[in-house]
Amino acid sequence: MKTRLFTLILLLIGLFVVSGAAHAPPLDLDSCHDDLDRVRRAAADASEAADDAHTKQEDLETCNRGEERCAGQRSDLESAISDVEDKMDTLDSRIRSTQDSCNYDFTVNRMSAMEASQRHLETSRKRFCASLRKLVTLGVSPTDALRTCQSGDEAQLCKACLGLN
């Protein structure tokens, strides 16, 4: 009796495992490989951008010519930081694509897709505001900078960025 029950349990487990494997989505190893390669390249690009930003940060720190004379180094650093953020966004996108194509969930970040999208939107807004403020520091009037914003929502964001609320 125990042998029959044991045999039945093994048979059921075997059927469950086989049926589960039969219903698993097929893994496209070619797409998985391509996406992993894109992740590698995006990570290398982000690493280079971070190294460049670090160099710009050191340049600003060693600038001893006073507040106004270091404006170029400060602007270079802000641009470099923006580039790092852009490269990190690309890397994040590549990782999400790789998770899909390789049918694998990385455990690094457990944010939902909505949370990740909100974070990316906020980062984009910050970069946009920094660009608008940079226009003003380059001599463009706040009014002219505001004209670059066309729609109602965009205009409100621009006003907030430029402190014109």
Query: Main β-sheet, in a few words?
Result: none
Count every beta strand, where a strand is a DSSP E run of 2 or more residues. 0
Helical segment tally? Answer: 6
> Would you tell me the structural class of the helices and strands?
mainly alpha
Bin the helical content.
over 70%
* Basic shape: flat
Rounded mean pLDDT is: 77
Labels describing this entry:
165 residues; mainly alpha; 6 helices; 78% helix; flat
3D architecture notes:
By secondary structure, this protein is mainly alpha-helical. 78% of the residues lie in helices and 0% in strands. It has six helices and no strands. Helix 2 packs antiparallel against helix 3 (71-102) and helix 3 (71-102) runs antiparallel to helix 4 (113-137). The protein is flat and about 55 Å long. The relative contact order is 0.08.
Q: Short description, anyone?
A:
With 165 residues, the chain is mainly α. The chain has six helices and no strands.
Helix and strand arrangement:
Blueprint: H1 2-23, H2 29-62, H3 71-102, H4 113-137, H5 142-146, H6 152-162
